Amino acid sequence: MPEFTSPALVTLSDDATLTDGVFELVRDRPDQVVIRHKVDGEFADMTYREFFDRVMATAGGLVAHGVGPGDRVALMSRTRYEWTVLDYAIWMAGAVTVPVYETSSAEQVEWIVTDAAVSLAVVETPRLAELVAEVRDRTPSLREVLVIDDGALETLRADGAAVTSEQLEAARAGVRGDSVATIIYTSGTTGRPKGCELSHGALLFDVLAAEAHLPELFSKQSDPSTLLFLPLAHAFARLVQNVAVQVGFPLAYSSDVSALVEDLARSRPSYLLAAPRIFEKVHARARQTAHGSGRGRIFDAAERTAIAYSQALDTLGGPGVGLRLRHALFDRLVYTRLRAVLGGRVRYAVSGSAPLSERLGHFFRGLGVVVLEGYGLTETAPALSANQPGHVKMGTVGRPFGGVTVRVADDGEVLVRGPVLFSGYHANETATKEALDTDGFFRTGDLGTLDAEGFLRITGRKKEILVTAGGKNVAPAPLEQRLQTHPLISQAMVIGDRRPFVAALLTLDEETLEPWLTAHGRPASTPPAELVHDQELLADLQGAVDAANTSVSHAEGIKKFAVLPVDFTVESGELTPSLKVRRSAVMDRFADTVTDIYGTAAEK
User: Fold this and answer.
1) CA 94 from centre of chain
2) Chain centroid offset of residue 196 CA
3) Residue 172, SS3?
4) Angle between the 235-243 and 81-92 helix axes, to the nearest 10 degrees?
5) How many Cα atoms occupy the beta-carbon half-sphere of 332 within 13 Å?
6) Cα(379)–Cα(502) distance, rounded to whole angstroms?
7) 76 vs 56, 113, 131, 377, 416, CA distance in Å?
């Protein structure tokens, strides 16, 4: 079985915890800015001293409210600076953070609060408090609910005024590296979520390993800062938070996706962490805007040049003179404007949570933003590998962090072992044992390959491989990635398991649909539901399908597709909070559409 281990660059003592770094940095760099939060619509700076004081005051309040070492405290909020203050305050009190997505249903909240035996919950809004109240009589461990928008932090600080530093130190004293820091419930596409227990040591090792693996992102010379807009209930966003606090650089927050462009312009981050969908949307909307304004030919030429330039960077001779001249021209005409959309300072971005298409990776590197695709799971704290600025292989998720071993099993499944691994699934010994093999490797459920240099390529999910009625194995992810680069397509789901051929379900991106409607003489407000059989639209989308099919064999190609009347959303249940498609939910909701594609006789 192919296997690769990167040399360990980080060592931790058995008693190292996530709170240690806060004490060290407030001592050594009290005036260093660590938080940038919104005040009257503008970002205001918070130093380490101010952050430390708020964390300790909040921790005192938690102790005053009966939170003790090992107790579980739920956090249910959008991404905002109070989340980070509360997270570190919970750890200062010796307790365990249980993140809950603010989009969760009452049933999901009930399960998480009950399974984790949460004793206190802090939620963002009165509406979320009402949601928790719906299940309060079925969550016997939950004693109290505090609301951020109703002054939860102010209440905690006031109530904790009488708690001494000695009491807080006593609460923290029993916490060691192997103590559980957080229980993150997986937002899986099927089944009931499992509570993934991550220790202080695993989370801290991941922070320091990421810093050692990607020094160009975090060194003082790069004047590092970032804007966090992913939900903090997600493990990857939590890593961004912890890196900023532990390494020591400004972290700005954006909780409103509609204000993301403005927040990028105001905060001017040096690097970003985002899901591939963000990069797909930036590209698709830029292309659509250019074509809608009559500058489509210029954009298309700039796109081809960016991709060619990036591809040439991987060759021995590099870009030729003519290509360099075209690239310089388009840098002035196009690329500078696209970089400005990301704030103007971003030179590196880390893409995680789903595969990024190679073409898109080359496009962004060609315009001056190197997207470093990485990989990880909640169970790996979460990151375990990433491409590095000087060692990028497009289409791979890079090499493992130092001290992490990656193995590819005989059936193609990616296995992982190292200090980043989770402690186990909360109160679920059976699932924990099933997730680990006899050598202590975690079974990721992903399929992949390792090359001789240790670069890992993810080829699909083991459970999502489609087997057609003819016995052909088809990985849906590569086709879906190609389809989603089309500006009109929001989501693409490839189907065909036990069916006679491969097909696709497509949803429309309403933001890029409006220019298309205008250009084709239709009312700009025409809803997607009225376009599912539009022949001109279907012809445009057929071009995207044909382009995607060039990447696979004829047997794997998409033979039919259907446009769905609505997009997938977290609220309607087709997407997980980390924006992965829940395939079973889509198949259930749009069963009639699937039947229309295949016909009732070929249903199975």
Assistant:
1) 27
2) 17
3) helix
4) 80
5) 5
6) 32
7) 21, 11, 11, 21, 30
Q: Domains (ranges, CATH) in the chain?
A: 18-175+225-257 (3.40.50.12780), 273-461 (3.40.50.12780), 465-602 (3.30.300.30)
Which uninterrupted H or E stretch holds 376? Answer: strand 370-376
Band of residue 256 on the pLDDT scale cut at 50, 70, 90: confident
* pLDDT over 50 (residue 210): yes
Contacts of 573 (CB under 8 A, 6+ apart): 582, 585, 589
Q: Please determine, for residue 603, whether its predicted confidence score (pLDDT) is greater than 70.
A: no
Higher pLDDT, 475 or 418: 418
Q: Pull the structure tokens for residue 287.
A: 């292309």
Q: At what angle do helices 276-292 and 296-313 cross, to 10 degrees?
A: 140
Of 210, 562, 592, nearest in space to 384 by CA: 210
| DSSP states along 300-348 | HHHHHHHHHHHHHHTSSS-S-HHHHHHHHHHIIIIIHHHHHHTTS---E
pTM, two decimals, is 0.88
Question: What was the pLDDT predicted at 191?
Answer: 60
As a whole number of angstroms, the distance between CA 60 and CA 86 comes to: 11
Angstrom distance (rounded) from CA 227 to CA 60: 29
